[in-house]
Specification:
It contains three helices and two strands. By secondary structure, the chain is mostly helical.
Length: 83
């Protein structure tokens, strides 16, 4: 029983994101200020939307991009219209 308690204490002491999880407030890079954006490796529609409108609801831009591209998937090198 002491071993389980020790593991629990250790896990609680780890910082958030220690296992690869990211909090909702995490911004994956600098803000995007241009009207178009070239997708980089590791980007998702959600991360792009967060960076393009840091104070807004990412769902709005995600929905707009999905409607324009016909897909919820983006690929490195793809150029997206953000406005």
């Amino acid at each position: 029983m002491a071993g389980v308690a020790a593991v629990a204490v250790l896990l609680l002491a780890l910082p958030p994101g220690a296992f690869g999880a990211h909090g909702a407030a995490t911004q994956p890079g600098p803000p995007i200020t241009s009207a178009t954006y070239t997708v980089a490796p590791g980007d998702s529609l959600w991360s792009i939307a967060q960076r393009a409108d840091p104070g807004g609801d990412p769902r709005v831009l995600v929905d707009r991009i999905e409607a324009r591209t016909g897909s919820s998937t983006v690929y490195p090198g793809e150029v997206l219209s953000l406005r």
